[in-house]
Design brief:
By secondary structure, this protein is mostly beta strands. The protein has a single domain, classed as Lamin Tail domain (Immunoglobulin-like, Sandwich). It is 9% helix and 31% strand. It contains two helices and ten strands; from the N terminus they run αββββαββββββ. The strands form three sheets. Strands 1-2-7-8 form a four-stranded mixed β-sheet, with no helix packed on it. Strands 5-4-9-10 form a four-stranded antiparallel β-sheet, with no helix packed on it. A hairpin with a 5-residue loop joins strand 9 and strand 10. The two termini are 29 Å apart.
């Protein structure tokens, strides 16, 4: 759904997100996998303060094409396959990580699941963007 991609209004707590968001990075991308749960992105808080990453977004390289479309053309019903919005309540404590898997499973403190039935990350080469709730790119990782 396209509504996933629209900026959100500020919420209480956004100041804390902004305070430590520079310490949140994409630590690892596992793109060549034999199962969907072995295809994942690891987000890591390398800072000294907890960071609420609720509502942050992971977008694959389709972002480059999508962001250049005029607003009236941003109606690709398959865009959801390229985007993952981190659920509300996900707070990364200092020196902690969360793994976002492409496959199926039950979300918990360490693992979040996209529940896809096909690959999300291209083995031949892709880029993953981590964006905050205002869609500012916080970090990105590319591979050949």
């Amino acid at each position: 759904m396209v509504w996933l991609l629209l900026p959100m209004a500020a919420r209480p707590g956004d100041a804390q997100v902004a305070e430590g968001m520079g310490s949140v990075i994409i630590l690892r991308v596992q793109y060549a996998a034999s199962t969907l749960n072995e295809e994942f992105v690891v987000i890591f808080n390398q800072g000294k303060t907890a960071v609420d990453i609720s509502g942050w977004v992971l977008f694959n390289s389709y972002y480059q094409e999508y962001r250049n479309l005029p607003l009236r053309e941003r109606n690709d019903v398959l865009a959801w396959k390229h985007v993952y919005r981190i659920p509300y309540g996900v707070v990364l404590e200092p020196r902690r990580w969360v793994r976002i898997c492409s496959g199926h499973g039950q979300d918990n403190e360490l693992y979040l699941y996209r529940n896809l039935n096909g690959e999300w990350l291209e083995d031949e080469g892709d880029t993953v963007y981590l964006m905050d709730t205002g869609f500012t790119v916080i970090d990105q990782k590319s591979w050949p």
